[in-house]
Each structure stands twice: as C-alpha cells, then as structure tokens.
Amino acid sequence: FAGYISQVLKNYTDHACDGEYVSLRCPHRTTISIQSSFYGRIVPSHQLCPSRYPHSYATLIKEDVACSVGTSLQKMLDECQDRRSCQFLVNSRLFGTDPCPGTGKYLLVWYKCRPNEYKSKVACEDDKLRLSCKKSMVIAIYSAIFGRTQGGSLECPYQNLGLPMFECQSATALQLMTKRCHGKRSCSIYASTYEFGDPCYPGIQKHLNVIYTC
User: Locate the SUEL-type lectin domain: which residues (predicted)?
Assistant: First the structure.
C-alpha cells in the first residue's frame, strides 16, 4: 500500500530530445494526469540534448535559447491524458510551426498518476470537511486546493463584488491535508483561513476542494 501511494502522490518528470521517444507510464489502477509541458530550448545544448548538427554547421547557426511553442501542453493532453501509458516520437512537426529552425529542441513534461477510482469533496469557507473510508480502508490524499479557482465552485457560488476573476491558492493545502488525513480511516478539518492561511485578498470567498481515494 505505501509503495502504491508513494507512486500515486509522486510528481513525475520526463524529457526527450528531438528524434527520441518520450514514454510516460503509470502503475496499475491509475492513469496519467498531465500537469505541465514545455517544448523548445531555454538552456544551451551542452547542458541538455546536445546539437545533432555537425560542429561546423552548429558554429554557423547561433543556437536559440529563448525558443518555445504554446501548443505543447495541449499536445500532451491529446496524446496522454487519462491513459495508463503513452509513447511518441518527439519532433517539431508534432507541435505545429517550428519556432526556431536549426536549433535542436526538447520536450519536458510533468505528470502525476491519478487513481482510477477517486472521490472529490468540497467545503465552502468556514464549513467543516469530513473524509471517511469503509472499515479496513484508509484515506490517500491525491490533491487539495484552498482558495479561489478560475472556474469557481458550483457548491460554493461566489458573490460578485465587482472584482476581476482570478486564482489564489494556498501553497500548503496539500501538505496540511496529507498530514491531517493521510493513512487514517476518517478525518475532519475546517475550510478556514485559521487552518490554511489566507492566499487571497481580504473579503474574497474561498473553498476547499480535496480529491482522495480509499
């Protein structure tokens, strides 16, 4: 159980240079959840993915180290999201227009492994959130957000105070929920700034959203 949970909670990072295969894989009963992705080059080739061009050619073309595409996250979501594993060859054609011809690029991807069966619970600000599992099962926290999210929360509609819609989230929510609930059969916590601090401007309504499995 502990090994499985550590794999589920872990943030995975993978990378592949142009012309190489990227391969993402998650353990049994989990699927890939893409967190972030980058395709391009922001460090020189002697640090990551050496140039595949002959040295004489590489000296003629100045390497671009401020090169990226805006489509890499969507491409990774299309190829890998919600699958147990995925593999494909990395090259600029995958991502549309080549942002820097003549410069060797690479793909970086950050992902987690989400349990196939998971529960989601929301508590509005100052309400109590209670999690519980059946007998002989314990809680495994997958993610926790305290604050205000771009899409809002159906369970906790915000009052429109004329403020622009923006995100503000506690940086310690996952750590706190894990400490309070992980490995226990049941637990409870108040969705309050006393517990989580206030990541938003004063007066902004917040909520706590926890995803977990038993």
Answer: 16-114, 123-214
Q: Name the one residue in this structure whose structure tokens are 């771009």.
A: 150
Token pair recorded at residue 44: 């020189």
Q: pLDDT (tens digit, 9 = 90+) per residue, 87-124?
A: 999 998 998 888 888 888 999 999 988 877 778 899 99
Tell me the fold of 119-213.
Answer: Jelly Rolls (2.60.120)
Please answer whether residues 110 and 33 qualify as being in contact, where contact means their C-beta atoms are separated by less than 8 angstroms: no
* Distance, CA of 10 to CA of 214 (rounded, Å): 17
The amino acid at residue 43 is V
For domain 2-115, give the CATH superfamily. Rhamnose-binding lectin domain (RBL) (2.60.120.740)
What is the C-alpha to C-alpha distance for residues 188 and 211, in angstroms, rounded to an integer?
14
In the predicted structure, residue 16 carries a pLDDT above the cut 90: yes
pTM over 0.70: no
Beta partners for 207? 124, 147
**C-alpha distances in Å from residue 168, one per residue of 16, 148, 207:** 33, 5, 11
